[in-house]
């Protein structure tokens, strides 16, 4: 079965704190892709990152960083020095190709991040 | 550049009424198209996807249907809405696999549907 679990439903931090959003996934596929999306209050989902299953290098983009650990099936997302504009719901997603599917994304339930000034 | 349009932004419908949500994509050809629903506390659920005109795959059984009458048009419909159909509906597109898709989804701005 394929599944994405975001155990943290809501997180609240004060501006400038670092925060890590957890994501654990399950898949039988050996080739798969992991994503993070941000959903600000406007509702539209914004793509943040895509990582394939063969690339376990961590990635940093400005204040954002991602830690992919295949051994624990986790793909965690850290925001350093959080800002109020980071307040949003963040979704982790998995795309696999079993059964010839088109790589449709399976989303976690999301983590609502509130950054207070 | 590519853009995706989804309308209406909000919709309030009585139980038993029909539904039609429309989504169009500009700036690309033969995209993969998707309808997702986001119900409160349940994350995003894939409802339908389409790889071409007239080709619709359903991921979950329900009283909703989808159609793709044109290459860049995707319509979500229902003949009779249920209370449980309330939610936030998102249309999305992606580059198809045969064109080297990186499977990145581009989402529309969503439709908040309230069935009363």
How is this structure best described in words?
The complex is a heterodimer of chains A (117) and B (116). By secondary structure, chain A is mainly beta. Chain A is 0% helix and 53% strand. Chain A is built from no helices and twelve strands. In chain A, the strands form three sheets. In chain A, strands 2, 5, 6, 10, 11 and 12 form a six-stranded mixed β-sheet that branches. A four-stranded antiparallel β-sheet of chain A has the order 3-9-8-7, with no helix packed on it. A two-stranded antiparallel sheet of chain A has the order 1-4. In chain A, a hairpin with an 8-residue loop joins strand 10 and strand 11. By secondary structure, chain B is mainly beta. In chain B, 0% of the residues lie in helices and 56% in strands. In chain B, strands 2, 4, 5, 6, 9, 10 and 11 form a seven-stranded mixed β-sheet that branches. Chain B has a four-stranded antiparallel β-sheet with strand order 1-3-8-7, with no helix packed on it. In chain B, a hairpin with a 5-residue loop joins strand 4 and strand 5 (44-52). Chain B is globular and about 40 Å long. Chain B starts with a strand and ends with a strand. At the A-B interface, strand 5, strand 6, strand 10 and strand 11 of A face strand 4, strand 5, strand 9 and strand 10 of B.
């Amino acid at each position: 079965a394929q599944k994405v679990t975001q155990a943290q439903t809501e997180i609240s931090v004060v501006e400038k704190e670092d925060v890590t959003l957890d994501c654990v996934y399950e898949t039988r596929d050996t080739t798969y892709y992991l994503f993070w999306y941000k959903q600000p209050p406007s509702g539209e989902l914004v793509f943040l990152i895509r990582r394939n299953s063969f690339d376990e290098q961590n990635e940093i983009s400005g204040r954002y960083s991602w830690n992919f650990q295949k051994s624990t099936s986790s793909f965690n997302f850290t925001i350093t020095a959080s800002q109020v504009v980071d307040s949003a719901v963040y979704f982790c997603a998995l795309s696999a190709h079993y059964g010839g599917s088109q790589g449709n994304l399976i989303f976690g339930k999301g983590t609502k991040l509130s950054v207070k000034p | 550049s590519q853009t995706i349009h989804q309308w209406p932004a909000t919709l309030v419908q009585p139980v038993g009424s029909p539904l039609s949500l429309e989504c169009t994509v500009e700036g690309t050809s033969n995209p993969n198209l998707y309808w997702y629903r986001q119900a409160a506390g349940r994350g995003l659920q894939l409802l339908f996807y389409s790889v071409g005109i007239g080709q619709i795959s359903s991921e979950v059984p329900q009283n909703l249907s989808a159609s793709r009458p044109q290459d860049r048009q995707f319509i979500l419909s229902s003949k009779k809405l249920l209370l449980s159909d309330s939610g936030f509906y998102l249309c999305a597109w992606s580059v198809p696999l045969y064109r080297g898709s990186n499977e990145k989804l581009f989402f529309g701005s969503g439709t908040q549907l309230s069935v009363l």
